[in-house]
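README, section 4: Worked example with a bound small molecule

Sections 1 through 3 covered apo chains. Here we extend the same pipeline to holo records, where the ligand is supplied as SMILES alongside the sequence. The molecule in this example is adenosine-5'-triphosphate. Nothing else about the input changes; the structure line simply encodes the ligand pose together with the chain.
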Amino acid sequence: MLQQVNGHNPGSDGQAREYLREDLQEFLGGEVLLYKLDDLTRVNPVTLETVLRCLQARYMADTFYTNAGCTLVALNPFKPVPQLYSPELMREYHAAPQPQKLKPHVFTVGEQTYRNVKSLIEPVNQSIVVSGESGAGKTWTSRCLMKFYAVVAASPASWESHKIAERIEQRILNSNPVMEAFGNACTLRNNNSSRFGKFIQLQLNRAQQMTGAAVQTYLLEKTRVACQASSERNFHIFYQICKGASEDERLQWHLPEGAAFSWLPNPERSLEEDCFEVTREAMLHLGIDTPTQNNIFKVRRKATSLMFGRDDGQPFS
Ligand SMILES: Nc1ncnc2c1ncn2[C@@H]1O[C@H](COP(=O)(O)OP(=O)(O)OP(=O)(O)O)[C@@H](O)[C@H]1O
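The generated complex, written as structure tokens:
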């Protein structure tokens, strides 16, 4: 039963609809100012149309973050916006007496969470849930948060502990290209779609410095190895190996130059994520040395050679 619509007491459903229509018109009439609404709880009346119009107005004004109470709505800009993620901006949010008074940003969430750990007498674990549909920007957002913590949670006093913190920071950031190489693939919606879920745990000591990180992955879409929807691709790592292996490695891994594989469709698409060197470099930083890497790729290559199948129908030796 309808009791009240935006302060009106309607006598009937018809009247309620009329009031709603008037309120809607009034709200959208001042549309030029919609981009200034940085909290969706201030949208009135709350309808799908008003919320979307508000987000659209902000998007047009290159404003990609909007609060919705204690939730942050992030719009994917689909273009590089480097000034939005600079270390200077990270420090600004970190140093602000009240970060929630600054413009809505993923760094506000990061900083508030960081302070919540610190401000309690007994530190309490904090969680940030990043959700959205495929291509919405979850991986990007998680990466941003990791970079943010790597910057703000790594300012120890002594040179020695500074070095340790720096190493942890690098390892945390380097875990991304490795996980993405092995667990991401190009889909119709996203060139770099994560085909697994992940739970990332960042560990801080009592002084709020980063001491480690752990990543748990789950629900890897293993079937993609053998079956890809048309116009989609297999996991990046396979293309990286095929495109980036040196001549020596090709010989070792029995990987003829230019060979086509039926289970590696659309290899002609050249993606930023195809860079084998980036994965190898990141693995090195994670402590996986070159011989171990070679063993991994050899094992991967052997396991997959049975499956890839060559387009000419020839089995692999
Ligand atoms: N804040 C941002 N700034 C610039 N580009 C972005 C931003 N967020 C997302 N993108 C772009 O959108 C693409 C898709 O984002 P992302 O991979 O994070 O989506 P996702 O939600 O993790 O998708 P999936 O669920 O498929 O893994 C990124 O590769 C990047 O190009």
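What to look for in the output: Confidence is low (pLDDT under 50) at residues 1-5. The first helix runs from residue 13 to 29.

Section 5 describes how to batch many such records.
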